[in-house]
Specification:
Radius of gyration: 22 Å
Oligomer: single chain
Shape: elongated
Helix content: 55-70%
Order of helices and strands: HHHEHEEHEE
CATH class of the largest domain: Alpha Beta
Number of helices: 5
């Protein structure tokens, strides 16, 4: 009986949603929301591209670094004080970066290893593109307390399934 009642309530809610979104007001709300999301996404993409360009994290720069040294190393202009040597600070930095990787839909926290020593972050593992290396390095660079990021993350092509 409870299942039947829940089914009826679900059908009623679904029908109400269909009716609302088929009206002009519903269509207008969806269109406005879509425009806001598109605008926010474009602004965020522009900011990200500018940061990547300023830190030489474009695909070409990363490919060149990987070909030359096998690593991607970027330093912030302002060095953080020597207090970074505290191990608890390093653990907090590592945890913060791992949290950012978990929250990022484009990167896999499981395939990227992060270690921090005296504010120097070392990242290793694999991603699907040079752009993803740039995103991972940028996430680390934007973390408080990080003085330098050294990445030996490799690009691994994902096998396509048929």
């Amino acid at each position: 009986m409870k299942i039947f009642f829940a089914l009826l309530v679900g059908i009623a809610v679904g029908a109400s949603a269909v009716c609302f979104y088929s009206t002009n007001q519903g269509k207008s709300a969806v269109h406005t929301t879509s425009d806001q999301i598109e605008s926010s996404t474009k602004a965020a993409r522009d900011v990200l591209q500018e940061k990547l360009r300023m830190l030489d994290l474009q695909s070409e720069d990363i490919k060149e670094d990987l070909a030359r040294t096998g690593q991607v190393v970027r330093r912030k202009a302002r060095e953080v004080s020597q207090a970074i040597a505290d191990g608890t600070v390093d653990a907090r930095i590592t945890a913060t970066i791992k949290g950012k990787l978990v929250a990022n839909r484009d990167l896999s926290a499981m395939s990227i290893s992060v270690n921090t020593t005296s504010g120097v972050v070392t990242m290793s593992g694999s991603v699907s593109s040079p752009e993803d290396i740039g995103k991972a390095v940028l996430l680390a660079m934007e973390t408080d307390g990080v003085r330098e990021v050294i990445s030996s993350i490799q690009v691994k092509k994902v096998a396509k399934t048929h």
